[in-house]
Amino acid sequence: MRTDDTDVSTTKPSKRQHRAAMVAEAASGGLKAILVKMALLGVVDAVALYGLFILFLQQQWLIFALVALVTLVVNWIYFTPGKLPAKYLTPGVIFLVVFQIFVVGYTAYIGFTNYSTGHNSDKAQAISALMSSAQERVPDSPSYAVTVLDQFGTLSFLVTDPGGEVSLGSADSPLAPVNDATITGGEAVGLDGYTTLSFQDILSRTAEITALTVPFSDDPNDGALRTNDGSSAYLYLSSLVYDEQADTMTDAQTGTVFSDTGDGAFVSATGEEMLPGWRINVGFDNFARAFTEKGIRTPLISVTLWTITFAALSMATTFFLGLFLAIVFNDMRMKGRKFYRVAMILPYAFPAFLSALVWAGMLSESFGFVNQVLLGGAQIPWLTNEWLAKISILVVNLWLGFPYMFLVCTGALQSIPAELEEAATVDGARPWAVFRLIKLPLLLVSVAPLLIASFAFNFNNFNLIYMLTGGGPRDAAADVNVGATDILISMVYKVAFTGQARDYGLASAFSIIIFILVAVISVIAFRKTKALEELNR
Amino acid sequence: MTSVDEGTRVIPQKRPFTFKRWFGRTGWRHAIGIVMVVFSGFPLLYVLSASLNPQGTLTGSNELFSQVGFEAYARILNSPDAPFAQWFGNTIVIAGTTSILTVFLGALAAYSFSRMRFTGRRVGLLTLVLVQMFPQLLAVVAIFLVMSTIGDLFPAIGLNTQVGLIMVYLGGALGVNTYLMYGFFNTIPSSIDEAAKIDGASHARIFFTIILRLVAPILAVVGLLSFIATTNDFVVASVLLIDPEKQTLAVGLYKLVSNPNYADWSAFSAGAVLAALPVMALFLYLQKYIVGGLTAGSDK
Lengths: 537, 300
What we know:
The complex is a heterodimer. By secondary structure, chain A is of the alpha+beta class.
């Protein structure tokens, strides 16, 4: 940092200076700039107001409060003079906070829940889902005249019961009487603030309308109204009975009682679980599973070790090949260096995800180029044998990564002053000694931060692993979907997003373990290289 | 000058060419160079050959350039179950928007860090360095759940929308990019700003009309790096984009050849060539700046 700047920060401007700066600032902004600013803020505020309105309707009070607060702060920052740093930082910081910092915190939260397929809503929603999935039409149900209404995309039923009483309800709010409906021929057909769906609309939204179940009352045991044609509805009752006092679900047909045992689902006496269940906090259960269940612990340990080995070896192999090539081609007498240089950069310029896919084809066991042509029809399981797959991954990553290291090392070598080499040669040092004692230490100083970056990148090099081997070959002894070449991030992805059972809770617990590992490794790395020193200058 | 000197002055004669000496000096370097050119160039040659092979199978692609035709290109562009042209367009739109906004947000932040002194500045810079150690994909599960919640409330920006995906990518806009730009902003003398300020220019005018033009090289580098990173992203894109016609090249092409033995390998190769050509052309064209940008901050 330049020293004159620090002076500015230490001496606070006097009040007069401050006011003078304000006047100058105000005078210098053109009318056009002010108009642009107003237009942008107007758009932001309009979007925010629309969002607040929707949140208000959905009764999401926490998010409502947060959006309102952020909108107010943004307006305050841009409408009051001064606060320049905030004016420049706010847009980026909002995205950073929501999609980088908040999601990390949210990951930590999910890691302590049982969030997974079958456990992804709250208890009330789970109960209503269970009840409605077991619904059957009451045989002697009266016919209710129904008009389907729309309000901002949410459908409601306007119901006229056989006795002429009019009520309104939607999937989330049970039927409640209304007085001010428009009535034609003894049947309610419209309501202020709602749009009545025309016959055409009903046809185009049939699927949505037939799937809609409107609870008859607050008590889920009273059943719900459903319609098949958008004009007459019938009462449906669930074969399950929910007892709110005892907090149990009873199957009316078999008489089995399912009760809430605190595991996030209704469980019968014989241990049978009713799904969907709901989301609960399970404390350290996910971590306990990761560290104590053998079917998870063993793969977790081997995956962690492989992740570190893979990242370290990838960094080392690419660096040494790159350095070697940089030395070989750093000779002025050599002709055609430019050609070699461009040819060797090609793998780096080719999009990485495509490279992995192409190599996967070339290394295919029965049809790939390597086995069929280079090795004359051999059947070598390059990607399906545990050890060969690991070697293949390292070779492909060498292909992907050496050009970068070659470029970096060439640059670093050329920036070492030639006098050093000359002086050493005059003193009688042999070329190897010059390299080992003079060039290499200087080179390492400048490329060390890049080596750390390379390690960090490979630590999470999801694309290569997932597209080349898919993490395979699968580890048959493991309880989670994980293979011999999986690294931590690909294991998280597979546990959370592939297969029938998606276990977000366990995957997030794994993510937290990665966070801690990365933090520890980076602290060590930064201590060693003092890369952060520059900030203190 | 004496006559002795005259007599001993040797006029260096061109020594006759011997293979041994040539090999000892530069020849072996060429040998290594040829090996490396084959190693790095071969897979690319293989893709090109496979894309020109009309047959389609992986085995058929093994005889390099045995057949040359553009049927595979026609197939990938008209395939009903692989909307390649749409993936291509989506990728350009998503990566383009992301990189432009990333550059803009990053430049705003870098300007304030470089030119202003305020409480929390050092902490802010430190946070940026730390944040880049934790890439977004580590929190992909949380991102998915957050976006599906947002999607329930605001379907236009939630799960399965490209706007939502771009917003998620912008979460990473401040970070390594800002740090790169911050270093470059510091190399522009602040006397330029001060002169403009004295002439009556506002901070916004200084930023938009003076500083941004002076730092154009780093803006190009950051934009290109962000474009390439976004194009290569599979994790977040595959989780957030569900409909095939909304997906990006990385997700779509992966699904196309998730089992290479049975896939239409030529069509995939043709798609790969089409997808890679613009990126490679741009990269080779700008390689000098990119290499400079990548190593910035390392040797100071």
